[in-house]
Amino acid sequence: MSTLAPYVGALAAFLASLSYVPQVRKAWPRGSTDDLSLGMLTALTLGLTLWIVYGAIKGDWVIVGSNVVGAALAGAVLGCKLRDRKCHSHKRGTMP
Asked: What's the CA gap between 46 and 69, in Å, rounded?
């Protein structure tokens, strides 16, 4: 049974990483991130980045690989949120 563990882990990592793709597609157009929490996106991106560090320390490349993809996609959504926040603050004449 333990011989299946790497395959189960890789499949889980692949599916979890892909789960961010719809959010990135939804957040990509300007002004589309109003309903997203900046705090949650920041915490998620930081958490995934720390999982990368943890996986590297443990030498578990399934953890590293899946979290690199997840952190990149979550970071892209975070970047869209920051872009939209900056755009909205300039329209109102205030800084974020």
From this structure: 13
